[in-house]
Amino acid sequence: MNEAQAAATPPKSTADDPWPVRVVSQKIGAWIAKLGWVWVDGQVAQISRRAGSGGIVFLTLRDPAANLSLTVTLHRDVLEAGAPDLDEGARVTLHAKPEFYPARGTLSLRADEIRQVGLGELLVRLERLKRLLEAEGLFAAERKRRLPFLPTRIGLITGQNTAAERDVLMNAKRRWPAAEFRVAHVSVQGPNAVPQILGALKVLDDDESVEVIVIARGGGSVEDLLPFSDEALCRAVFAARTPVVSAIGHDPDTPLLDYVADFRASTPTDAAKRIVPDLAEELRLIDHARQRLDRAVLSMIGREQQRIEAWRSRPVLARPESLIEQRSAEVTALRDRAGRSLEHRVRRADDELRHTLARLRALSPLATLQRGYAIVQRGDGHVVRAAGEVAAGDPLRVRLAEGSLTATVVSGEGE
Q: What is the per-residue pLDDT across 277-304, written as a single tens digit (0 to 9) for each?
């Protein structure tokens, strides 16, 4: 590093060689002055026209989506030229240069031009933001969560003592008297609306007992409903773990919150009808279901009784002994048939035996012997059929029909 660079480089502060406050203020002012002139967009939170200030007007310019604000100074002529009817809560765009005041240690903007954002430009900005959020998927129907049928506790974000609060609470308790609410009162228009709504949304979303959150507001102009089209609020609702119901204005009013919320109610009264069931209607449905159940049970019992009666009318159940009697009759018939068949067979066999015996007797030698014939046998038992078969003196045995004789051959002669 050469001597010229060393001379240009400011010395650093140390514990042994600290900078005075004036030096620090000068350096901060120098760094801020490097930003130069910029165009700034914001919402007017306060206007102060102090007497004796040499025509200087003081504005408090607030970021619509964050709890940040800056003081703006401008000449009365600049204000009259750019925004003569400027009121608190209006959106403006101004050309300003940041300035640091060492004496007070404050930062402010010095403006040389101011423009009040008209309704047409606001609508164009909202349409541009709407397309951006839709492209990112914040409006997608598939990511919207179903509302609980009967929430244990309901979170309500609304203005204090407003018609919207009364509509939600009264109609919800009229439908379901046991409905429990946790109400967060916030500003529903103006520069403080968005930060307060964001804070209330975080508190209710962190409460595990809260099962659904309702953001409600009555009707109003487009400018009045601008906080509910804020980008930060839309993204916070999208990131919330608890289902959110948007009940802003009347049916024609459609702030961007309606597209991001899990359910869009046309009015605060409609929101009350959506978050809790109607007790009278539910009792009627229960009674109707009970009647249908009774009819179904009675019909089933009737069908089963008819089936039982049909079973009881069958012979096997009406007279169980008839089956035994039938089988007994069949057994008796079979036994009688078997007896008759056996008797017939025995009788026929007896007849056959008699006939056979008669034929046997007719053919038996005994029958011949009965007619006077005899059987002559030699001593060896051979039946003598011819005289030549024996010789004189041979012993013979003569068998008669009754008894037998012993004889001796005396002589014999041929036929």
A: 988 888 999 999 999 999 999 999 999 9
Number of structural domains found in the chain: 4
Question: Domain ends where: 228, 247, 277?
Answer: 277
DSSP-assigned letters across all residues of 53-98: SSSEEEEEEE-TTSS-EEEEEEEHHHHHHH-TT--TT-EEEEEEEE
Domain hosting 239: range is 123-277
Instruction: Render the burial of 171-185: b for 16+ CB within 10 Å, e for the rest.
Output: bbeebbeebebbbbe
pLDDT tier, 151 (very low <50, low <70, confident <90, very high otherwise): very high
* Cβ-based neighbours of 107, under 8 Å, separated by 6 or more: 32, 70, 71, 98, 99, 100, 101
Whether 159 and 111 share a structural domain = no
Shared domain for 127 and 272, answered yes or no, is yes
Q: Is 97 exposed, middle or buried (0-12, 13-18, 19+ CB in 10 A)?
A: middle
DSSP 265: -
pTM above threshold 0.70: no
